[in-house]
Design brief:
globular; 271 residues; 5-stranded mixed sheet; binds adenosine-5'-triphosphate; 9 helices; alpha/beta
Length: 271
């Protein structure tokens, strides 16, 4: 299966709550994000088999802040997928934003262990995204709920990562401020595709700030000038995000389909 086909397939499986009829052994990945938690199962070739997700606020800026809540959600997602597949899942991979260290880095593994999944590896989120896109040369920019992370890959080697606490949450706050509505209402408005054209001018300064952050992360690295740039993460779902980011960044960027699912799929591929 082609990479984009895999992403469309995963989206379909999650939306319909169905399972792809593919033989095991299976790999499991859990993405504990600022805005959502996603559990994905693939076959040994990385083809999506099943998945489930929940919007949740158990992580802030890449750090687990509600350990009990996070564990319960992973338990629920695991139980849902196990029922769909008719098997027990016992191991899984997790990911963290680049630069997360110490106890914060260990927290994701503890969460999935608490939910009954033995943590077998933990990777950097943009590295997982690169795996899902099958990229071994290029720049992956991951703009999630709370963070913007980048990974630069050169002929298969990860040569640079960086992360900064700016993401979709900041877009939501800007919408709330501009329209004088609550953050919850702003989040709903932001995810309403029919409103995106109207909202775009309001959030443009935040998109430009995100592009500036990535530019600064890459400052002085002229070697990466001709590397292809891929933007993933739920924030890139916003209609027109890729075009506006490209303009502010000064280079063309590629936004794959269902950008929110790229990192979770990649994590499972490491599982
Ligand atoms: P992080 O990686 O920062 O810890 P995360 O893994 O939760 O966070 P993602 O799941 O990649 O991040 O993306 C979540 C963000 O995507 C949220 O801010 C959410 O509001 C935004 N988002 C999701 N769907 C849409 C949509 N249709 N339009 C605009 N934004 C969206």
């Amino acid at each position: 299966m082609e990479q984009y086909e895999k992403i469309h397939q995963l989206y379909h499986l999650i939306e319909t709550g169905t399972v792809a009829d593919l033989p095991g052994p299976y790999k499991v990945g859990v993405d504990l994000g600022t805005a959502d938690v996603v559990l994905v199962v693939t076959d040994s070739h990385g083809n999506p088999v099943a998945g489930s997700m929940r919007w949740a606020s158990v992580v802030k800026d890449g750090l687990v802040v509600d350990f009990r809540g996070a564990t319960m959600i992973v338990e629920e997602l695991k139980a849902e997928v196990e029922e769909l597949m008719g098997i027990t899942l016992d191991q899984g991979a997790t990911a963290i934003p680049p630069g997360t260290v110490g106890r914060n880095a260990q927290a994701c593994g503890h969460v999935i262990a608490g939910a009954g999944l033995e943590p077998i590896c933990q990777i950097d989120e943009p590295v997982a995204a690169a795996k899902a896109l099958n990229i071994n040369h290029g720049i992956v920019v991951d703009i999630g709920g709370g963070t913007t992370g980048i990974a630069v890959l050169k002929h298969g080697d990860l040569i640079f990562t960086a992360d900064e606490a700016t993401g979709g949450t900041h877009i939501t706050l800007t919408i709330a401020g501009a329209y004088k509505i609550t953050v919850e209402e702003a989040e709903i408005l932001k995810k309403d595709v029919s409103q995106h054209r109207r909202i775009l001018p309001v959030i443009l300064p935040v998109i430009e700030k995100m592009a500036t952050i990535v530019k600064q992360m890459l400052a002085g690295q002229d070697e990466y000038q001709d590397y292809p740039v891929y933007v993933v993460g739920g924030t890139a779902t916003f209609s027109g995000f890729g075009e506006e980011f490209s303009k502010a960044f000064g280079r063309e960027v590629h936004v794959p389909p269902h950008p929110l699912l790229i990192t979770p799929l990649g994590i499972a591929m490491f599982g």
